[in-house]
UniProtKB/TrEMBL annotation:
Transmembrane segments: none annotated. Residues 17-286 form the Nucleotidyl transferase domain. The record marks Q69, W108 as: Could play a key role in the communication between the regulatory and the substrate sites. Residues 309-412 form the Glucose-1-phosphate adenylyltransferase/Bifunctional protein GlmU-like C-terminal hexapeptide domain. The gene is glgC. This is Glucose-1-phosphate adenylyltransferase.
Length: 420
């Protein structure tokens, strides 16, 4: 029997996704010296922003806007290369909205809400019924149509996407205090003692930075906020608390709309905002049964796919055998008489003979010369690792030469190599 609730979806086609992608992500240190956090590479082929964009596309949303600000060239180039397939004649649109002083010569985007406010005229020209505000810097798979359905059926002024986390791990989030009907009765930013969910004293609801509004309601709110000299023009600090106090704000649990393949046991959401979290989320993909399934063809992660030759493994002699185990190796990689284990190699990485690479995330077109031994590293795009370099065996030496994280992961950039 046909499932009409799935086949007759309409709400997503009346909505626009507005992706906030202007943040630097300073906790990623040198990885964001040249690119915004949403443009940081992830998973062998993708960028972080591809997850929010793919969720929107797979949910049936065909109008998308992306607001950029900090060092946006890498991000904009990726969006132009990989997301240029939307067609106006099919009532589709894809707008890149850099902070361009459209309102006044001295005004860049002042906050997340202001990024939307400055583009109200552009959004209004498409006349979407609903606006889905998304952060462009998280890794997850979610069907926004299900969240839209809850928003409409509940009569909420705003619906806030939330993840369930152990209560005392929620101190770094904006936390929703909800009643038994999921109505938000208080919104607390980074509380020392987070409020628990009703009937679940050890679990708190933390904001994912996903908000759904009726477009007209939101724009009325934003115009009023724009006139408030005391506002920081931010969704988390100003807009959401205002609706909680003066309207109806409802929480939506991520577990109710997350997309899981048959092998994914739990809802997967990660903020890869630190070197350790970024490294761990990438290395997790090399597990025999990873927590996040990138091979799920029912919910593909769209991205810019370079036209490159297949990966190549060469030499087969004792001590000089091109081999990779428990690893993801992308196109145009050459594993030449070297060993790669539990690592993720992006496009075009070349590992030369007699090298060992273990638990490493190596970004596109990096090169590892002969006899190098690398453990627990994140290597930036295009870095040339000199012959014989050893990283991951002497913590004190590593910390003097490279960026070594609290978890013992070394971030290596070309500038660091040049100083050796």
């Amino acid at each position: 029997m046909r499932d009409d609730s799935r086949t007759n979806r309409r709400l997503a086609r009346t909505a626009m996704a507005f992706v906030l992608a202007g943040g630097r992500g300073s906790r990623l240190k040198e990885l964001t010296d040249r690119r915004a956090k949403p443009a940081v590479y992830f998973g062998g082929k993708s960028r972080i922003i591809d997850f929010a964009l793919s969720n929107a596309l797979n949910s049936g949303i065909r109008r998308i806007s992306v607001a950029t600000q900090y060092k946006a060239h890498s991000l904009i180039r990726h969006l132009q290369n990989g997301w240029n397939f939307f067609r106006p004649e099919r009532n589709e649109s894809f707008d890149i909205l850099p902070a361009s002083q459209r309102v006044a010569e001295d005004k860049w985007y002042l906050g997340t809400a202001d990024a939307v406010t400055q583009n109200i005229d552009i959004v209004e020209s498409y006349a979407p019924d609903y606006l889905i505000i998304l952060a462009g810097d998280h890794i997850y798979k979610q069907d926004y149509e299900l969240m839209l359905e809850q928003h409409v059926s509940s009569g909420a002024d705003v619906t806030v996407g939330c993840i369930e986390v152990p209560r005392m791990q929620a101190t770094g989030f904006g936390v929703m205090h909800v009643d038994e009907n999921s109505r938000i009765i208080d919104f607390v930013e980074k509380p020392a003692d987070p409020p628990a969910m009703p009937g679940r004293p050890d679990i708190a609801l933390a904001s994912m930075g996903i908000y759904i509004f009726a477009t007209k309601f939101l724009f009325d709110l934003l115009r009023k906020d724009q006139e408030d000299p005391n506002s920081s023009h931010d969704f988390g600090k100003d807009i959401i608390p205002h609706v909680v106090k003066n309207g109806k704000a409802v929480a939506h649990k991520f577990s109710d709309s997350c997309v899981r393949a048959s092998t994914e046991e739990e809802p997967y959401w990660r903020d890869v905002g630190t070197i350790d979290a970024f490294w761990e989320a990438n290395i997790d993909l090399t597990d025999f049964v990873p927590k996040l399934d990138l091979y799920d063809r029912d919910w593909p992660i769209w991205t810019y796919a370079e036209i490159v030759p297949p990966a190549k493994f060469v030499h087969d002699e004792d001590g000089r055998r091109g081999a990779a185990t428990s690893s993801l190796v992308s196109g145009a990689c050459i594993i030449s008489g070297s060993r790669v284990d539990k690592s993720l190699l992006f496009t075009g990485v070349h590992v030369h003979s007699y090298s060992d690479v273990e638990h490493c995330v190596i970004m596109p077109y990096a090169e590892v010369h002969r006899g190098a031994h690398l453990k627990r590293c994140v290597i930036d795009r295009g870095v040339v690792i000199p012959a014989g370099l050893v990283v991951g065996e002497d913590p004190e030496l590593d910390a003097r030469r490279f960026r070594r994280s609290e978890g013992g992961v070394c971030l290596i950039t070309q500038e660091m190599i040049d100083r050796l």
